[in-house]
Design brief:
heterodimer; A: 108 residues; 6-stranded mixed sheet; 5-stranded antiparallel sheet; B: 114 residues; mainly beta; 7-stranded mixed sheet; 4-stranded antiparallel sheet; 0% helix; globular
Chain lengths: 108, 114
């Protein structure tokens, strides 16, 4: 059974701080997605990584896919209150395997 | 704009009522739609996989007679919660997928059973 371990599950930081969220598995994934979800809404896709070692940037967000395609990380630089939300990693294509989610709170 | 439309966004009803939730893929034909349930501050829990024109595949522990899924066309899937009870209160989310595309999610339905 494929599993994705996401950590930390909760993160509360001050505006301007940096943070990293990790997503790890013992299984290889063909692709991995990162989503952000706000309360009362569905998850919104941030990025898809497909190549081992790939790095993608989305403004202050940097996504990495491990060389072996078993792990991924999301790094946010200079976090802002608007970054607050639930971040989800998900692996695979079609039927996704989700991590446990990271509830991020950025205080002004 | 929204790629997947989910309706209604919020419903409150009495115990014993059946509730239907619609999920529409607006921009592409979705061969597969997924139905999830989510508890506060937790990740998504897959309930069932729905392929157009065939019976849904339910995850272990999900009662297929309780959660009826219909996927009659490539752009519409419905989830009916039959004889809903307070323990069925939750946030239900659908998603649409076709090979070569990322999965797109609806905005969810908040179901409250009194």
């Amino acid at each position: 059974t494929q599993l994705l371990e996401q950590s930390p599950q909760f993160l509360s930081i001050q505006e301007g701080e940096n943070l990293t969220v990790y997503c790890n598995s013992s299984s290889v994934f063909s692709s991995l997605q990162w989503y952000r979800q706000e309360p009362g809404e569905g998850p919104v896709l941030l990025v898809t990584v497909v190549t081992g070692g790939e790095v993608k940037k989305l403004k202050r967000l940097t996504f990495q896919f491990g060389d072996a395609r078993k792990d991924s990380s999301l790094h946010i630089t200079a976090a802002q209150p608007g970054d607050t939300g639930l971040y989800l990693c998900a692996g695979g294509e079609g039927k996704l395997i989700f991590g446990q989610g990271t509830e991020l709170s950025v205080k002004p | 704009g929204a790629v997947v439309s989910q309706h209604p966004s919020w419903v409150i009803c009495k115990s014993g009522t059946s509730v239907k939730i619609e999920c529409r893929s607006l921009d592409f034909q979705a061969t597969t739609m997924f139905w999830y349930r989510q508890f506060p501050k937790q990740s998504l829990m897959l309930m069932a996989t729905s392929n157009e024109g065939s019976k849904a595949t339910y995850e272990q522990g999900v009662e297929k007679d309780k959660f009826l899924i219909n996927h009659a066309s490539l752009t519409l899937s419905t989830l009916t919660v039959t004889s809903a009870h307070p323990e069925d209160s939750s946030f239900y989310i659908c998603s649409a997928w076709d090979r070569g595309r990322p999965q797109h999610f609806g905005d969810g339905t908040r179901l409250s059973i009194l």
